[in-house]
Write a structure and sequence with these properties.
Structural class: mainly alpha
Distance between the termini: 34 Å
Strand content: 5-15%
Strand order of the largest sheet: 1-2
Number of strands: 4
Largest sheet: 2 strands, antiparallel
Length: about 325
C-alpha cells in the first residue's frame, strides 16, 4: 500500500491538524536535497503539475510522482511571484547556509568586533530569508522590510554587546565561568531580535487587521484581534526556534571539551562544534515552525462583533504566516 494519499494541488500530503503531521510536512519543506535539483528537472515538475491542473495528465503518472513534483516546485519557486528564490534564501537552504553563521555566533572568546559581525550576519541572513519567502499577494513597501532589518540588527547587537560588557565587569565570576556564561549570550540577543523583526515587519497587520475565513475558504472580514493572535504565535515560534540552537551546543561542547580526545587534539574542537550546531539547527527549525498550524483557528465570538455577526460558522481560520 502506498504511503502517498491522493494528490491535491497546493496542499500538504500530511495532516496539518496534528503536530506530527506539521513536523513531517516541514521536514519536506527544509529538505536540502532540493537545492541540487537541475533546471531541467524543475521544468519537468512544473510541466507535470500544469498537466494535472489542465486535466491532461499522461497515463501512468503516480501520486508519489505528483507529490514529489510539487515538493520540488514549492521549494524553488515563490508561490506569488512565480520567480526562483535564490538558493541561500530558500527554506531548504536555511539550515546548510545558516549553520556556519550559528557556529560563528557560538564561538568562544568573542571580541567586541566579532560579536557585532556575527550578530549582523545572522540578522542579515534571517532578513533575506524572510523577504524571499514573504507573502507577496499584496504589495508592501521595501521600507517596511528595511525597518524590520535595522531594528533586528540594532537589538541583536545592542543586547549581545551589553551582556558581554556586563560579564567582563563581573568580578565575582572566575575566567572559566565567564567563558561558559558568554557562550549563552547569543540566545537572548537572537531571540529578542527575532521578536523585534516580526513586530516591525508586520506591525501594519495590527492596525489594518488580517483576513479571517469560514469553512468554505470565503473571507468573512478583516480582524485586528486575529492579527494579534497571529503575531503572538509567530513571535513565540521565533523565540523557541533559537533556543535549542543557541542553548544546546554550548552545553554539549562544555562536556565534550573535557574528554581526553579533544583535550589532546584541539584541532577537532571546531569540526565537532560544527556537527553539534548542524544537528541542533536541523532539529530546531522544523520543531519550532510546527508548533502552530499555518492556518490557525479561532472562535468567532473571540473576534470583533461585526465579524461574528457576519457568519454562522463558530470557528474561523486565519493565516498566521511563518
Amino acid at each position: 500500500m502506498s504511503d502517498y494519499p491522493p494528490f491535491q494541488y497546493g496542499k500538504s500530503r500530511f495532516n496539518q491538524e496534528t503536530f506530527r503531521g506539521r513536523f513531517r510536512h516541514f521536514l519536506d519543506v527544509i529538505d536540502p536535497s532540493t537545492l541540487f535539483v537541475s533546471e531541467k528537472r524543475l521544468q519537468e515538475c512544473i510541466k507535470l503539475l500544469n498537466s494535472f491542473r489542465q486535466g491532461t495528465l499522461p497515463p501512468g503518472v503516480t501520486d508519489a510522482e505528483l507529490w514529489e513534483a510539487q515538493k520540488i516546485k514549492q521549494a524553488i519557486i515563490h508561490p506569488d511571484t512565480g520567480e526562483k528564490i535564490l538558493m541561500p534564501f530558500r527554506m531548504s537552504g536555511f539550515v546548510p547556509f545558516g549553520t556556519p553563521v550559528v557556529i560563528g555566533l557560538l564561538l568562544p572568546n568573542q571580541t567586541m568586533a566579532t560579536t557585532i559581525f556575527w550578530q549582523w550576519l545572522n540578522q542579515s541572513h534571517n532578513a533575506c530569508v524572510n523577504y524571499s519567502n514573504r507573502n507577496a499577494t499584496k504589495p508592501a513597501p521595501f521600507s517596511k522590510f528595511f525597518q524590520g532589518y535595522v531594528g533586528a540588527v540594532t537589538s541583536a547587537v545592542s543586547i549581545a554587546v551589553g551582556l558581554n560588557v556586563l560579564i567582563q565587569k563581573a568580578d565575582r565570576l572566575n575566567p572559566t565561568t565567564k567563558l561558559l556564561v558568554q557562550r549563552f549570550v547569543p540566545f537572548p540577543a537572537v531571540a529578542s531580535a527575532n521578536i523585534c523583526n516580526v513586530v516591525l515587519m508586520r506591525h501594519t497587520e495590527l492596525s489594518d487587521g488580517i483576513d479571517v475565513l469560514d469553512d468554505s475558504g470565503k473571507v468573512v472580514g478583516t480582524s485586528k484581534i486575529a492579527a494579534r493572535h497571529a503575531l503572538l504565535e509567530t513571535a513565540l515560534t521565533r523565540v523557541v526556534m533559537p533556543m535549542p540552537i543557541m542553548v544546546l551546543p554550548p552545553m554539549v561542547m562544555a562536556v565534550l571539551e573535557k574528554l581526553p580526545l579533544l583535550q589532546r587534539r584541539r584541532r577537532l574542537v571546531l569540526p565537532v562544534h560544527s556537527l553539534v550546531c548542524l544537528a541542533a539547527f536541523g532539529l530546531a527549525l522544523p520543531l519550532a515552525i510546527s508548533l502552530f498550524p499555518q492556518m490557525s483557528q479561532i472562535s468567532a465570538n473571540q473576534l470583533e462583533p461585526e465579524i461574528a455577526a457576519a457568519t454562522d460558522c463558530q470557528i474561523l481560520t486565519y493565516n498566521k504566516g511563518l
